[in-house]
Write a structure and sequence with these properties.
Rossmann fold; 6 helices; 17% strand
Length: 187
């Protein structure tokens, strides 16, 4: 009986060594592939055409969201409505208005308000969102992360122009197609 356990122990050791070897090999191959994808990631071609193609209203039920988080400036909803009217667009304008982000509690409130707006827009069946932000950069990043891979979200920048042309369309919220290099590698 001891002889059986000795053989079983040897087979177990051999299988453990082989498993460790294949795991290490797999790790190295994946690491090389990721490095190659990062190096060979293609540029986003026709970027200006892509931006132009998404400009304006492109769906049946758009909505605008005016986010005002800059202290002492107040709500931007009226200037957003004036901009939308000047362009001849018809869409409702919803708003998030806070007197700045003054700590972790305000960040939590802001994040939850964004989530509420997203659920509300989904419930209403909106098909695209025009996003106007007067907020610090971390708040903009939070909004971008929350609205990523959702309905088309179009970003606007406040310019120094007088109202009602005081906003400029920048681009839609998109991801760069980095998966193309991986797909090409696997074909």
């Amino acid at each position: 009986m001891d002889e059986f356990w000795n053989w079983f122990s040897r087979i177990d050791n051999i299988l453990g060594v082989l498993t460790a070897f294949f795991a290490g090999y797999t790790y190295m191959r994946i690491r090389q592939l990721v490095r190659r994808v990062v190096k060979e990631s293609p540029p986003f071609e026709n970027f200006q055409q892509f931006i132009k193609a998404h400009e304006g209203i492109k769906s049946l039920k758009p909505v605008a969201l005016a986010v005002s988080l800059t202290p002492n400036i107040g709500s931007i909803k009226s200037s957003v409505e004036a901009f939308i009217d000047a362009n001849g667009w018809k869409m409702p304008v919803d708003e998030i208005d806070m007197n700045g982000l003054n700590g972790p509690k305000d960040i939590e409130v802001y994040f939850n308000r964004l989530r509420e707006k997203k659920r509300l827009f989904e419930a209403r069946g909106h098909t695209e969102m025009h996003l106007f932000l007067s907020a610090p950069m971390p708040a903009c990043t939070i909004a971008g992360a929350l609205f990523d891979n959702w309905i088309p979200v179009k970003l606007y920048h406040k310019t120094s122009e007088p109202a009602p042309r005081n906003y400029q369309y920048w681009m839609p919220l998109i991801k760069h197609p980095v998966g193309t290099a991986l797909e090409a590698e696997n074909k």
